[in-house]
Design goal:
33% strand, 3-stranded antiparallel β-sheet, single chain
């Protein structure tokens, strides 16, 4: 009996996860983006841990200590999806504002940076 229940639960989960798109789109939130730059987006999850002198990252404020010049970062995400079957096809696309950040180094020796900006909350 437990094996049948397990198979049914596994089957139900596979149907729900195979529906396509983001699970958040059911609740009106759509796809969530945590990165503003294409480089961080290409790295995926490990992109949060990277630091550098050339970028600001709202998910890793510890990386702001290495900023040595005034930085301005902004992002725009494009999402396109093609849905088709044997007789019909549709292409849906949208743009999302990913945010705006600026950072001004105060003391490079001590790693102090003043930063601010507008970043939409994910989800």
């Amino acid at each position: 009996m437990k094996k049948i229940f397990f198979v049914l639960v596994l089957f139900a989960v596979s149907i729900v996860s195979a529906s396509g798109g983001s699970v958040y789109s059911r609740y009106g939130a759509g796809n969530t983006y945590y990165y503003m730059s294409a480089g961080k987006l290409a790295l995926g999850g490990p992109g949060i841990a990277t630091t550098g002198r050339r970028n600001l990252d709202n998910m890793n404020p510890a990386g702001w200590a290495s900023v040595n010049r005034t930085r301005i970062e902004t992002g725009l995400n494009y999402n396109g999806i093609l849905i088709e079957d044997y007789s019909n096809s549709a292409y849906y696309s949208n743009y999302n504002f990913a945010g705006f950040l600026f950072g001004v180094p105060v003391s490079e020796k001590y790693g102090i940076t003043i930063s601010g900006g507008l970043v939409p909350l994910p989800g």
